[in-house]
Amino acid sequence: MIHSPQTAAARPLALVTGANKGLGLEIARQLGNLGYTVFLGARDASRGEQAAQTLQAEGLDAQALALDVTDQASVAAAASTLRARFGKLDVLVNNAGIQIDDLPPSQLSPDVLRRTFDTNVYGVVLVTQAMLPLLRLSDAARIVNQGSAMGSLSLTSDPANMRSGYWLLAYSASKAALNAVTVQFANELRAEGILVNTADPGYVATDLTGQQGFNSMEDGAKPSVRLATLPVGGPTGGFYNIDGPMPW
Question: Which end of the chain has fewer beta carbons closer than 10 Å to its terminal beta carbon, N or C?
Answer without folding.
Answer: N
